[in-house]
Amino acid sequence: MSGGETYTIHAVRYAWREGRRSENFLGGDEHDGPMPLDYFVWVLRSNARTILVDTGFSADAARKRGRTYLRSPKAGLKLLGVAAEDLRDVVITHMHWDHAGTLADFPNARFHLQDREMGFATSRYMGHAPMRLAFDVEDVVEMVRLAYAERVAFHNGDDEIAPNVSLHRIGGHTDGLQCVRVWAERGWVVLASDASHFYANMNEVRPFPIVFHVGDMVEGYATMRRLAESPDHVIPGHDPLVMQFYRADDPALDGIAIRLDRAPLPVPEPA
Which of the four pLDDT bands, split at 50, 70 and 90, describes residue 271? Predict the structure, then answer.
């Protein structure tokens, strides 16, 4: 048990895309079939503060990349009563286009980023098309501008950014990818972001194919299990199953903004 602040945790779904199993595992999948991806940002709230994890992407980026856009992350937050302009702390788990867009929608925030992620996003690796494919240069340039404006808090590995909220460098997917550990009523919850896109990546130790360092990725699965209260307390970054396992405070928000600080629901077996 932890003293100090206890947080509610919401996952806010703002976009999705079709996908197949063969696209979501390194080396493919012999049982290929539909396996779509959801896109989320996450909101942590205690009595003292509100922290956002990731900023998603814009409608324009969705059109360019062929994603189905449901609403802006800013609009999703508004449904929870959170004004983007009021946020003071935003964690960027990594600099890929779908996690570090819409930065300008948070004009008063300080952004928390790993040193190694900024270094990676501006490194020699970006001279190779396969490495830069998941980055948007405008997002990277905007983060550099924010750093010059003294609005980026850089972290070197594990760090606590608020009482009972800590960042942990995982790597793997990108060099500076970080997960977020947060204390909730049900214990320590870990927001994996892209350290595990799907439950299956972690549970079956089958890496997602967009990967900088496979060894760091698979070691990251074990790290997150150590950080979390139980395997059920690790929340993957893009799995539609999350929307089945958890529910919203208000039924009108089901499928939009769900609570992760409560125990998951049993999902019935298919008939």
Answer: very low
